[in-house]
UniProtKB/TrEMBL annotation:
Pfam families (alphabetical): ABC_tran (PF00005)
Official protein name in the record: Phospholipid/cholesterol/gamma-HCH transport system ATP-binding protein
Classification via PROSITE patterns: ABC_TRANSPORTER_1, ABC_TRANSPORTER_2
Top-level taxon of the source organism: Bacteria
Transmembrane segment boundaries: none
CDD domains: ABC_Org_Solvent_Resistant
InterPro entries documented for this protein: AAA+_ATPase (IPR003593), ABC_transporter-like_ATP-bd (IPR003439), ABC_transporter-like_CS (IPR017871), P-loop_NTPase (IPR027417)
Length: 329
């Protein structure tokens, strides 16, 4: 099962340049959360701080009583084994086959026999649809397949926390849809805590239980999906609905002249689009943190946009090795 991650007053800078300051949030145990933000706002830096690859300037990151931001190397090493991380490019060892890449954490961190390792590795390889490609080198498979191989490796120690750094970058919409379904299915099967960094607005609107947005050196918002998709806060509304009107410009933040010109034009914001239903596990069972559609809105007296929570998107069948194992992606 997953564990809660509690972040308090986290601040990070490089050479005097602040990335973000005083970030405070709680990532609920066992749920899927998404972290959004314009390019350059420090989303990947945030993930690296969570897993202890970077030390923040100030603040705390509590995982089951352990403060990753301040603990020693021995304690950090033990806590890291509770994480699985899927990096943007898969971060595979180029000289190792897919099989050996996935087996690497088991050989490094356990005393399992090669027979036991093979059973676990092949289970994870099948889970991500790569059966038949296990003996290939990373250079011999496509970018999408390398991502899935990286995902299999991240899952091989059955982590309680999974971090995904832009898993959909470089993927076409169809492969992104299959990957999103796989993430939802894995969350249901493992009960682990998932945090996804992404730029894909459709992913952010349909996959998570919670949404966060980093912008202009701070955390603009973090909370339940429905709260964020109903938000009238300008930067949250603009980003989640892919609108040009708002404080975000081509170079992250619009200057005063741009904002003044926008206000003078009396341009009206388009209405908020309907809130879609959450993507459901392909086996038909409820998500671990399933809530009735519209529950947050009803509890907080918020009227959702017209047409919200209506089934308008098709469901996807389970991802299988036959469907994804050898084709390009």
């Amino acid at each position: 099962m997953g564990v809660e991650i509690r972040v308090e007053g986290l601040t990070k800078s490089f050479h005097g340049q602040v990335v973000w300051r005083d970030v405070t949030l709680t990532i609920p145990a066992g749920e899927i959360s998404v972290m959004l933000g314009p390019s350059g706002t420090g989303k990947s830096v945030f993930l690296k701080c969570l897993v202890g690859l970077l030390k923040p300037d100030r603040g705390h990151i509590y995982v089951d009583g352990h403060d990753i931001a301040t603990c020693g190397e021995r304690e950090l090493y033990a806590v890291r084994k509770r994480f699985g991380v899927l990096f943007q490019d898969g971060a595979l060892f180029g000289s190792m086959s897919v099989y050996d890449n996935v087996a690497f954490p088991l050989r490094e961190h356990t005393r399992l026999s090669e027979r036991e390792i093979r059973s676990i590795v092949m289970e994870k390889i099948e889970l991500v649809g790569l059966l038949g490609s296990e003996r290939k080198l990373p250079s011999e498979i496509s970018g999408g397949m390398r991502k899935r191989a990286g995902l299999a490796r991240a899952l091989v120690l059955d982590p309680e926390i999974m971090l995904f750094d832009e898993p959909d970058s470089g993927l076409d919409p169809v492969r992104t849809a299959y990957l999103n379904q796989l993430i939802v299915d894995l969350n249901q099967q493992t009960g682990a805590t998932f945090l996804i960094v992404t730029h894909d607005v459709n992913t952010a609107r349909t996959v998570p239980d919670n949404i966060g947005l980093l912008y202009h050196q701070h955390l603009a918002m973090f909370g339940p999906r429905e709260m964020c998709l109903c938000s009238e806060e300008p930067v949250v509304r603009q980003f989640l609905n892919a609108q040009r009107i708002g404080p975000i410009g081509m170079a992250e933040e619009k200057d005063a002249d741009e904002l003044a010109a926008e206000a003078a034009s009396s341009a009206e914001l388009p209405p908020l689009p309907p809130i879609p239903l959450q993507l459901q596990p392909s086996n038909g069972l409820p998500r671990p943190s399933q809530r009735p559609p519209g529950q947050w809105c009803a509890e907080h007296g918020v009227t959702p946009p017209p047409g919200s929570f209506q089934s308008t998107t098709p469901t996807f069948p389970p991802v299988t090795a036959h469907q994804t194992g050898g084709g390009p992606s």
